[in-house]
């Protein structure tokens, strides 16, 4: 699992430098990305290609988008990443400075499911739940994205 953690950290760093392919390389071909219900029009994105389109569309409105992984929690086949993001909207100039979390479910070195949480403590709770994450993170627990 330590190798998976290192690879995930590298993938997030590469994504912050505009290399989306590194992030996508961590996903299984049939991965499910369960995004915040607060992000209009997006709930679950299925498949590496569709997730690639989602990420490109999500990152496009940002002039600057920088993520730092502040903490990692490993529970069996799941890896929780507590993330600090700073960003500036391309056209709005909106500045974002917040923390959120992603919980990755890993199989054979690839993410088969990624759940986004607005509240890092909600992600920690999901990791501690032996029955695994809920079917879909609730809007109050998931990452809220603003552009």
Identify the CATH class.
Alpha Beta
* Low-pLDDT sequence parts: 133-147
The radius of gyration computed from the alpha-carbon positions, rounded to a whole number of angstroms, is 14 Å
**What's the architecture, going by CATH?**
Roll
Major pleated sheet = 6 strands, mixed
- How many runs of DSSP E, i.e. beta strands? 6
* Secondary structure tally, helices: 4
Specify the structural class: alpha+beta
Percent range of helical residues: 25-40%
By CATH, the topology is: Nuclear Transport Factor 2, Chain: A
Number of domains: 1
Distance between the termini: 34 Å
Spatially, the strands of the biggest sheet line up as 2-1-6-5-4-3
Strand content: 35-45%
SSE order in H/E notation?
HHEEHEEEEH
* Average pLDDT for all residues: 85
Shape: globular
Descriptive labels:
single chain, 147 residues, alpha+beta, Nuclear Transport Factor 2, Chain: A, 4 helices, 6 strands, globular, disordered C terminus
Task: Walk me through the structure.
The chain has 147 residues and is an alpha+beta fold. The protein has one domain: Nuclear Transport Factor 2, Chain: A (Roll). It is built from four helices and six strands. A hairpin with a 5-residue loop joins β4 (78-89) and β5. Mean pLDDT is 85; it is low at 133-147.
SSE topology:
Blueprint: H1 2-16, H2 20-24, E1 27-34, E2 44-46, H3 48-59, E3 62-75, E4 78-89, E5 95-107, E6 110-117, H4 120-128
Parallel strand pairs: 1-6
Antiparallel strand pairs: 1-2, 3-4, 4-5, 5-6
């Amino acid at each position: 699992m330590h190798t998976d953690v290192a690879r995930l950290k590298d993938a997030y760093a590469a994504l912050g430098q505009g290399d989306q392919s590194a992030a996508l390389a961590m996903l299984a071909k049939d991965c499910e990305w369960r995004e915040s219900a607060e992000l209009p029009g997006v709930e679950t994105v299925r498949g590496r290609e569709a997730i690639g389109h989602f990420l490109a569309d999500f990152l496009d409105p940002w002039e600057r988008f920088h993520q730092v992984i502040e903490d990692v929690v490993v529970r069996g086949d799941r890896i929780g990443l507590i993330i600090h993001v700073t960003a500036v909207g391309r056209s709005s100039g909106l500045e974002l400075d917040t923390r959120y979390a992603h919980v990755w479910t890993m199989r054979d070195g690839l993410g088969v499911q990624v759940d986004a949480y607005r509240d890092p403590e909600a992600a920690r709770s999901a990791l501690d739940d032996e029955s695994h994450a809920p079917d879909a993170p609730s809007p109050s627990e998931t990452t809220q994205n603003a552009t």
